[in-house]
Automatic annotation (TrEMBL):
<dbReference type="GO" id="GO:0005886">
    <property type="term" value="C:plasma membrane"/>
</dbReference>
<dbReference type="InterPro" id="IPR011992">
    <property type="entry name" value="EF-hand-dom_pair"/>
</dbReference>
<dbReference type="Pfam" id="PF13499">
    <property type="entry name" value="EF-hand_7"/>
</dbReference>
<dbReference type="GO" id="GO:0005509">
    <property type="term" value="F:calcium ion binding"/>
</dbReference>
<dbReference type="InterPro" id="IPR037607">
    <property type="entry name" value="DGK"/>
</dbReference>
<comment type="similarity">
    <text>Belongs to the eukaryotic diacylglycerol kinase family.</text>
</comment>
<feature type="domain" description="Phorbol-ester/DAG-type">
    <location>
        <begin position="239"/>
        <end position="290"/>
    </location>
</feature>
<dbReference type="InterPro" id="IPR018247">
    <property type="entry name" value="EF_Hand_1_Ca_BS"/>
</dbReference>
<keyword id="KW-0479">Metal-binding</keyword>
<feature type="domain" description="DAGKc">
    <location>
        <begin position="390"/>
        <end position="525"/>
    </location>
</feature>
<keyword id="KW-0547">Nucleotide-binding</keyword>
<dbReference type="InterPro" id="IPR001206">
    <property type="entry name" value="Diacylglycerol_kinase_cat_dom"/>
</dbReference>
<keyword id="KW-0808">Transferase</keyword>
<dbReference type="InterPro" id="IPR029477">
    <property type="entry name" value="DAG_kinase_typeI_N"/>
</dbReference>
<dbReference type="InterPro" id="IPR038199">
    <property type="entry name" value="DGK_typeI_N_sf"/>
</dbReference>
<keyword id="KW-0862">Zinc</keyword>
<dbReference type="GO" id="GO:0005524">
    <property type="term" value="F:ATP binding"/>
</dbReference>
């Protein structure tokens, strides 16, 4: 007898609108509670009338009779040999199986009961255990993991003494073993690992587990949320992720095998992970056959994941045409093969043309099953990955869908299909940490950041906190932001324009790593009473500036926060920058900035007053700013004389013009900005560069009045302060091997020009 998906959905909807919390209703089962009269003498079971009364109070409404009867039947269990332990384990095993698959499987006795239950009289004398019912309803509740753990604690605390003794923890271990078997994990070595994990919950080693220890352990030390059915990360694979799609060629439904037809052309629901396709009316009958993204234990080989070919393709074996439903298509290697050719096709999947980047499910498995190999036993990461071999470098994709016109949503879906979905993360929801932790144990891997300069900085900072077992992996960039200055320097382009992702992945495969400097910035406000904005970052990856350009960026930021609907495309953003730049030219809010600022480079004071007046100062780590402008410019041919690092404006002709820029030389370039007009001229190519001031390894800046500032395009208003900038570290980045790109000189040491 099965609880249908429709009935399960109905029950879930009732739970979503429930105004009661289970932990508050448990007291009603005590002696003076309203449900006490329905309990058996041992207080472990409840009859049909008691369950119906309990559900009515809990949901705040009377559930349909057929749903209540079905739920009651689902919790009826077979008698077991050991009424104290085996009964509880069997019941909980059935309960968790139902939670995982949304179905309740009953034995032969239940089949006989359901065939004859025509009315309420069928339930006379029948009772169900109370604890599995409470656990299951708790799973449906939209409560936090802490609250769910608390309810489970009280369910297993059978003597209600406020702690779990040895017998009660043994019952939990048996329950977790049942769940592991249901998930098809290799449990041969699991039981001693679970016992060790459960012993670690007892932090004070007093032999019992308190509620605080239970919740602390459930959220940090061991995967209680997984083995008790509360997980969000390790959900069971096989469920489709449906998206409405329009097809450009004849495509057939996998269920009814009829042609897809809809308004505006061929239309249907397609799984974004495996491309299983159905009519909207057929989705209820769709087979649950999506891919598995991880395995129960590491294996060396992986089989194909075959799906019926529902459109015309070429056979990868005989090269003849494959009609609809005349062959199979593998989700991983994307090869289509005739049914008659399958016997001649290798059984082991080679993962296709992107095998260099794919992390196969055979090399991802629950971390606690290989606990002895983990260096950080207290890590909250529930999965562990290992390298498939030296022939490939799995690619971790971290995507910010909110960057630059929200192109990231489309990129996210495409990469989930091209790679293993476990490699692709929407960091606007999860942050970069889960993906970085999963890949921290892989010997050779690459990281692809899909977003703007701010997203890259976010990921690089998160990578600083990860303990990499085999060294920090290099980072490639798919530019989705507005300026994309770092992506330009690394030759990945100024913006993603719907190019072929497969070609981009092949470019990453051929890319070369190089080291990039990063700089630590410390800002000390001179007066604590001054009001200002907090600095957005404490690390400089691209550039730091004070004055005219930061003023434009700050106005842009304020306008975007106030009117976000006016900043929904890359072109609109550039037009706003142009308008705000024109306003700044007329107002000149940072005029004579050099009179209100002091700069020390490597301990030497810069004379800012000798030369044209300045409205801004910029410190450059890379040779691109404002979406492609090079403020340092090209260097002239050296005369062969030794050139010091710091020059005053009056002696710039003596050698500073020969200094070249390199993102990995441990030096940062300092330039002066005369006006917003000069910035526009450099952007347009009318002027070659800004005014060079210094090239050094440490900078100290003191301001005497409030100024707008920005780090990597993120602006804020800063009161008078002292700023210290020092070299922090170097990180590996991937440089695209694209000879057509004209920005190579932005990256490496620039060749000197022949003019003096």
């Amino acid at each position: 007898m099965l609880l249908s998906p429709e009935q399960f959905t109905r029950l879930t909807e009732y739970a979503a609108y429930s105004s009661h919390q289970l932990k508050d209703m448990l007291v009603e089962f005590e002696q003076e509670g309203i449900f006490y009269k329905y309990l058996s003498d041992d207080l472990q079971t409840i009859d049909f009338e008691g369950m119906r009364h309990f559900l009515t109070v809990y949901f705040g409404a009377e559930l349909p009779a057929d749903l209540v009867e079905q739920l009651f039947l689902s919790f009826l269990a077979k008698p077991t040999k050991n009424p104290s332990m085996d009964r509880r384990c069997s019941v909980f095993e059935d309960t968790l199986n139902s939670v995982r698959s949304n179905l309740y499987t009953l034995g032969e006795k239940l089949e006989k009961l359901t065939s004859s239950h025509d009315d309420k009289a069928s339930f006379e004398g029948q009772r169900i255990p109370l604890k599995p019912l409470v656990c299951y309803l708790q799973l449906l509740e939209g409560a936090s993991p802490e609250n769910k753990l608390e309810v489970v604690f009280h369910v297993y605390d059978s003597d209600c003494n406020g702690y779990l003794d040895k017998a009660e923890t043994e019952a939990i271990i048996e329950q977790m073993m049942n769940v592991a078997k249901h998930l098809q994990w290799d449990t041969s070595e699991l039981e001693p690992i679970l016992r060790q994990m459960m012993s670690e919950i007892d932090y004070d080693n007093d032999g019992i587990v308190s509620l605080d220890e239970w919740k602390r352990g459930g959220m940090t030390t061991i995967p209680l949320l997984v083995l008790l059915g509360f997980d969000t990360e390790m959900k069971e694979d096989g469920s489709h992720l449906w998206k409405l799609r329009h097809f450009s060629k004849p495509t057939y439904c996998h269920v009814c095998r009829l042609l897809l037809v809809g308004w505006g052309g061929k239309q249907g629901l397609s799984c974004s992970v495996c491309k299983y396709t159905v009519h909207s009316r057929c989705v209820r009958n769709a087979e649950t056959c999506c891919i598995r993204t991880f395995s129960n234990r590491q294996t060396d080989t992986m089989p194909h994941h075959w799906i019926d070919a529902n459109s015309a393709e070429k056979c990868a074996k005989c090269r003849a045409n494959v009609g609809a439903f005349q062959g199979k298509r593998c989700r991983w290697c994307h090869n289509t093969v005739h049914t008659k050719c399958l016997t001649q096709w290798p059984e082991v999947c080679d993962l296709g043309v992107l095998n260099h980047h794919i992390l196969p499910p055979s090399h991802i498995f629950p971390a606690f099953l290989e606990r002895k190999t983990i260096k950080q036993p207290h890590s909250t990461n529930l999965l562990q990955a290992v390298s498939p071999g030296s022939h490939c470098r799995p690619l971790l994709c971290l995507i910010n869908p909110k960057s630059g016109g929200k192109q990231g949503v489309k990129v996210l879906r495409k990469l989930e299909f091209m790679l293993n979905p476990r490699q692709v993360y929407d960091i606007s929801k999860t942050g970069p940490e889960p993906g970085l932790q999963l890949f921290s144990t892989i010997q050779s891997c690459h990281v692809l950041v899909c977003g703007g300069d701010g997203t890259i900085g976010w990921v690089l900072e998160a990578m600083d906190k990860i303990q990499w077992e085999h060294g920090r992996p290099p980072v490639a960039v798919l530019p989705l932001g507005t300026g994309n200055d770092l992506a330009r320097c690394l030759r990945w382009g100024g913006g993603y324009e719907n190019e072929s992702l497969q070609k981009i992945l092949h470019s990453i495969e051929k890319a070369q790593p190089m080291m990039m400097d990063r700089w630590q910035i410390k800002i000390e406000q001179r007066k604590k009473t001054d009001k200002g904005d907090p600095p957005p970052y404490n690390i400089i990856n691209n550039y730091f500036s004070i004055g005219v350009d930061a003023s434009i960026a700050h106005r842009f930021h304020v306008m975007r926060e106030k009117f976000p609907e006016k900043f929904n495309s890359r072109m609109r953003n550039k037009l706003w920058y142009f308008e705000l730049g024109t306003t700044e030219t007329l107002s000149a809010t940072c005029k004579n900035l050099h009179e209100q600022i002091d700069i020390l480079c490597d301990g030497e004071t810069l004379d800012l007053g000798n030369g044209p007046t300045l409205e801004g100062i910029a410190l450059l780590n890379i040779a691109s700013i404002y979406g492609g402008s090079n403020l340092w410019g090209r260097s002239r041919k050296s005369t062969g004389l030794r050139v010091p690092l710091i020059f005053t404006p009056g002696s710039i002709g003596g050698g500073l013009q020969h200094r070249v820029q390199d993102i990995g030389d441990g030096l940062i370039e300092v330039v002066g900005l005369e006006s917003a007009t000069q910035i526009g001229q450099i952007k347009a190519g009318v002027r070659a560069a800004a005014r060079r001031l210094s090239q050094c390894s440490t900078v100290v800046i003191q301001t005497h009045k409030p100024f707008p500032m920005q780090i990597d395009g993120e602006p804020w208003m800063q009161p008078p302060c002292i700023i210290q900038i020092t070299h922090m570290n170097q990180v590996p980045m991937l440089v695209a091997n694209n000879r057509k790109t004209k920005t190579w000189n932005l990256l490496r040491r620039q060749p000197a020009s022949e003019d003096n």
